[in-house]
Structure prediction request, 129 residues.
Amino acid sequence: MHTTSKTILLVEDEEAIRRLFVFILRPYGFTLLEASNGMEAIRIAEEYDGPIDLLVTDLDMPKLGGAELAKRLAAMRPGLKIILLSGLSRDAAIRPGYLDPEATFLQKPISPAYLVTTVREKLGDEWPA
Prediction:
């Protein structure tokens, strides 16, 4: 198994899903920052001194949704890569023109292998060979 030193900010309001994603990604050596909502994620991003390489966020959350969170964090941390999650289809979850076209969308439920593959693809050359 390849490991990495990259940091992921994981934002999911359903604790069981967040814990599952941590369980899936932790063996790969990621630093995982966890937030249960968008406002908490903003606070973590402001307080965390190191780089955040990837944001993985649910779209539908209380207090601050994932689309707005992604927009704010991308402005705070240029070069941030983004994966958006939703139980809805992409067309139902995202209004046209609402998101950066570079953002990747995954529809829940997501298999562990597909999550890891998508994270690896999103990090591109930054993932160890």
